[in-house]
Amino acid sequence: MSKKYLFIFVLIGGIGALFVFEPQLRRLVDQAWNPWAYASLGGASLTGKWKGPVEFAGRSTREMQLELWRHPMERHRRRGSVRYPRAGTFDGKAQMPDEQGNLIFYEVSGTTNRSGSVLKLNLRDTNRHPSPQKQPLLQQLYGSWDGASLRLSGQAGLEIYDGRSSRYTSEDKPVAVITTMQKMP
Q1: Do the domain assignments include residue 10?
Q2: Is residue 155 part of a domain?
Q3: What's the whole-model pTM score?
Q4: 95 close to 65: Cβ distance less than 8 angstroms
């Protein structure tokens, strides 16, 4: 066999192997760019379930559960290949009772640096219950992750929700929020 045919054979085999192993290669690249999302070699991971008390300045403390994940996006339609979201992004969900004991569920989206040590969480409530009194509503939290704990702080707006819309005034100053969460088993 001539060197020309051998080269073509190896080239075609290599391209075929890339198509077969593409999902694994993309995951390895994602692990390299987002090590915080994967618990490799028994290490810690930012993704998973977290739980901790949320302290609202001048108001009651409430328990919050938070779950963060980084999943591949849906397969590309034409090629069937796996795609991952932009580096440093994650999604999740959270739940926490309001001052009347009703559970508020939140959709979470966030960003972090490559090590996961600096975080920004955006929260959007999905099922608020009507209340005649002003309730603190989480919208954005900033914090840090050190492997064992997740420290978050920010501000919550005080709003009255009548079942259709929220009301607040310029006199309603945001309430400071702080929490230190621990990883759940």
Answers
A1: no
A2: yes
A3: 0.79
A4: yes
